[in-house]
Amino acid sequence: MYWEKAIETMSREELKKLQEERLRQTILRAAKTPFYRKRFAQLKLDPEKLRTVKDLQYIPFTTKEDLRQGFPFDFLAVPLEEVVRLHSSSGTTGTPTVIYHTAQDLERWANQVARCLYMVGMRKTDIFQNMMSYGLFTGGLGMHYGAEKLGAMTIPIGAGNSKRQIWFLQFFKTTAVHILPSYALLLAQLIKSEGLDPKKDLNLRIMLIGAEPHSEETRRRIEELYGAKAYNSYGLSEMNGPGVAFECPYQNGMHLWEDYYIMEVVNPETGEPCQEGEVGELVLTTIYRDATPILRYRTRDLTAFIDEPCPCGRLHRRITRIQGRSDDMFIFRGVNIFPIQIEKVLMNIPEVGNNYRIILEREDYRDVMRIEVEIKSELFFGDLQKLERLRERIQAELRSEILATPEVVLVEPGTLPTQEGKAQRVFDQRKM
Ligand code: ADP
Ligand code: ZN
């Protein structure tokens, strides 16, 4: 049941001991990098004296901006010749940042991913198709080496080219995939348009979905479409990539591997720690990585931690589904809205198809939100009154969730633009 039983089920006290040991080494290592050397000196902090998880609070947060400014080498803690690979964030928001890995870092990361895959029931007998893009993006190679370490036959197909994806899924009877949730929804549509049923004509049993925010409703829809289990997978390139936190078979929050990271959840405005269950920004410290140690990294991802032990027996604490990035939120007529709130409502309405987008405009000094929603094709041949009633229902359900009234436009499946890579849902065309 466990990939590494001793570590996964370690008691909280033992885990804390292990964390502090690793933290001390990490801080000493970090003190060798130009960035932290300067920072410790400015604050007159003696790295030798920072010894406990509690002492971490004396160290200021590290931000994405710090990583950018430290480009290319200010966070590097080993001689460059020890580095065997670099990865870079996919740059969804601005200039990329770069993370270096030693051979041992990569080995540990592969193990971390294998642990996640084993946890959700993947075994060496699985046929694994990795539909994430290979290259600088960590979702490709990161998951790839984890799956190989587990021993599954791994198909490094990469992202896109749906026809080829479908051919491989069928021909090799793929049992497990790593896929963007937005792409899983689109692909199901394409599979159907080839006259196949993703549930009956494929052999999928496990889907690892992540790299972008998605709601519980989307997960259920994906599971329903493919007749497989879909597990939420969280990671970011600054903290390696996939494998940081992962759902277990109970699908109730993601275990964050605390032998690899020290986790904090803080109020994004004040930086003060949040209580269990309170949503805040996830802050992570690497404690099991040599080339690029990062202390108290502000991920900008919003979540809450769950302290309560999980029935699966793993004592690494869980985080709730990521609600979005603090910078994803948009303000519409004074109301704060996260795209995932809209997604949740849409994916719960059976007539709604698998794609949508949110357009924000300003007309006559007034904000307008237009939500274009694909609906199932058969509905387009039905009567107009029915369509209008559906449109009104969608609008009313959205209104009660987001407390604002969007315009809703129903469109035929396949008509909204799609992207290769993470889905862009919000198009803010308001001129400030
Ligand atoms: P970029 O920051 O350019 O998108 P990354 O590939 O490092 O580059 O993306 C990591 C980010 O993707 C995370 O910080 C988070 O916002 C998002 N993400 C990753 N996995 C999930 C997930 N399971 N749920 C929600 N968001 C996720
Ligand atoms: Zn669990």
SSE blueprint:
Layout (H helix, E strand, L loop, with lengths): L4 H4 L3 H19 L3 H9 L21 H6 L13 E6 L9 E5 H17 L7 E4 L7 H13 L2 E3 L6 H10 L4 E4 L1 H13 L12 E5 L5 H11 L2 E7 L6 E6 L6 E3 L4 E6 L13 E7 L10 E7 L1 E2 L11 E2 L10 E3 L2 E3 L1 H9 L4 E12 L2 E10 L8 H19 L4 E5 L14 E3 L4
Parallel strand pairs: 3-4, 3-5, 5-6, 6-7, 17-20, 18-19
Antiparallel strand pairs: 1-2, 7-8, 8-9, 9-14, 10-11, 11-12, 13-14, 15-16, 17-18
Helix pairs in contact: 5-6, 8-9, 9-10, 10-11
What does this structure look like?
A hairpin with a 2-residue loop joins strand 15 and strand 16. Helix 8 runs parallel beside helix 9 and helix 9 packs across helix 10 (339-347). The strands form 5 sheets. Strands 4-3-5-6-7-8-9-14-13 form a 9-stranded mixed β-sheet. By secondary structure, it is of the alpha/beta class. It starts with a helix and ends with a strand. The mean pLDDT is 95. It has 11 helices and 20 strands. The chain folds into 2 domains: 1-327, Rossmann fold (3-Layer(aba) Sandwich), CATH 3.40.50; 330-428, ANL, C-terminal domain (GMP Synthetase, Chain A, domain 3, 2-Layer Sandwich), CATH 3.30.300.
What distinguishing features does this structure have?
single chain, 432 residues, alpha/beta, Rossmann fold, GMP Synthetase, Chain A, domain 3, 2 domains, 9-stranded mixed sheet, 4-stranded mixed sheet, 20 strands, 30% helix, globular, binds adenosine-5'-diphosphate, binds zinc ion
